[in-house]
Design goal:
Blueprint (H helix, E strand, L loop, with lengths): L5 H12 L8 H5 L16 H7 L6 E6 L10 E5 L2 H9 L8 E6 L24 H18 E11 L4 H12 L4 E8 L16 E8 L10 E2 L3 H7 L2 E2 L5 E6 L9 E5 L6 E2 L3 E2 L22 H11 L5 E4 L6 H8 L3 E6 L2 H11 L3 E3 L3 E4 L5 E5 L2 E2 L1 H5 L3 H11 L3 E7 L2 E7 L2 E5 L12 H11 L6 E7 L9 E4 L2 E8 L34 E2 L4 E10 L10 E11 L16 E7 L11 E4 H6 L3 E4 L8 E7 L4 E6 L6
Parallel strand pairs: 2-14, 2-17, 3-4, 3-13, 5-12, 13-14, 18-25, 21-22, 22-24
Antiparallel strand pairs: 1-17, 4-6, 5-6, 7-11, 8-9, 9-10, 15-16, 19-20, 20-21, 23-24, 26-27, 27-30, 28-29, 28-31, 31-32
Helix pairs in contact: 4-5, 5-6, 8-9
Length: 637
Amino acid sequence: MKKLSKLQLEQINELLRKGQALPEEYKNLLFESKKEYELVYGGKEREEDIIAETMAVPLQPVKTLGKDGHENGWVNKLIFGDNLQVLKTLYNDPEVKGKVKLIYIDPPFATKQEFRGSKEQKAYQDKLIGAQFLEFLRKRLILLREILADDGSIYVHLDWRKGPYVRVLMDEVFGEQNFRNEIVWKKYSGVKNQASKKLTTQTDSIFWYSKTDNIVFNQQYRPMSEEYIEGEYKYTDKDGRKYALIRGRGYKDEKKTTKKYLDENPGSPITSLWDDDGLQLNTSSAERINYPTQKPESLLERIVKISSNEDDIVLDVFAGAGTTLSVAEKLNRRWIGVDCGKLSIYTTQKRMLNLKAEIGNKGKAITPKPFTVYNAGLYDYKLIKELPWNEYRDFALKLFQCRDEEHKVSGVKLNGYLGEDHVLVFQWHDGGEIILDRGFIDDLHKTLGKKVGQKFFIIAPASTVVFLEDYIEKDNTKYYLLRIPYSIIEEIHEHGFEAIKQPVSEADVNDVVDAVGFDFIQTPDVECEYKIRKADKKTLFDGDKEAVIKIKKFKSNVLSRKPIEFKNLETLSMVMVDYNFNGEVFDIDQYWFAESLEKDGFEIRFDPKKVEKQMMIIYMDIFGNEKREVKTLKDFK
């Protein structure tokens, strides 16, 4: 600790005597940093607190797609949820923690004003700035470091806005000694419109760090140009192999020539400047899906090949358009993708089910290995109730952050602990649905008595609990009810709860917030008119008729002790359609945000010729809840 002046000591004593907080400048005087340097900003939390206090959320399987899985039984994962909470769940998973060989992330880094996306799909709205952005990213980097294998690598893709700050942040989290390269990627060819009073930016930076010095590294090469090959490799062997004749160059006999075969020359080793032709995503690219943050498969191919081998685990927690995952699939890696936007999940799902064998989405169609789509933080209660008892018990304990530890008190079998307090998972469907009433609490207390302390927690479906109180007090013990599907009661947690919000316009798609807690799917109330009418002059498709969906009513149903009233259409986020629904998998074709729908009088118009047999329409609210409708053209009057 630095030596304090007499005046400083007097000020500290006076503030402590009054019970007041010490000014921020005393932090570094009283508690010296162990690091030579670090970023200092408001709201920065200790690493230990981030790891300990981040809430893990159980993963609820929604569906599994694909076939012919990995030999070891691994199933790839596509997870909808807040990536910080999911990272804590993966941190607790021995199958994942310390076993991920490659992490690539392309986090939000612009501001709402700076981003000028198209009117098509939009992913992370890059509005986080300053300290908020840095702490948002730092929390995730800390957990990513813990999940990374000892010989693993992490690549963080950024543009010019926050690159210098994130470089310091990466030094702090991963260690300056584990910095590998700053890769400079030329993201487009040609010259864009000249920026006002500054040079046009054509590049992004990708910071490559490792966890240790012992890393997976596979040298990659820059392919030779056709022009170079034609000029150098002029000769062909009888077996069809092209070669060049190399003269002298150090040999005693300067006239001696040697053959250098084309198929033995991989090209030039790549450097940290990636300006090759073919590493950009052009408007005519076969892989383009009009996702504004979409990166080319060729870029991710290079990264995946450098820092992983076949069957290694690749992780992307800002999955976006799903490029990392599609490349990992093609290169026979295992993968995990996470995103907090339903649009990203549906886009990635569609992409995985329409893969082509070659990078750039060319060649023959291929079927992906099995991958499971999960919900994390927003759950389908109906599916939870249908789980077998052991799976339900495990899910309930994880949901409320309880330690799974079977034990007995006075002969009563208990299931775990919340902190140091006992937890019982109520067996409500033991031989039929059982009611949890005051009599159950009375009988339990008679058996347990004073042996369970001041708090005792019971996890039970809300529908089985016949009283309204959050707890019932017996003697000096409070028996708390943790109801499913009600959110966790505030009294037992330091933080409030905030659900992931879905966008209502392209300007705030996947507005990035740290979600806290969990919620349950509640289908919105939706009423629509479906009709065929003469095409409007403003219709963008050919034909004299148009199909119209007129949304008349849209109201969310929110589970809450204090009912929340929303105006009609207030909570609509977006509408997505699959024009040729196969009866099993929703394959997104088009979508509309609420903001644009409002301008059109909440009417969706499309060419009826797009629908062959049946279509699926998903109406989604800002909480991620969905109302699904399957329609044929006969339903449009």
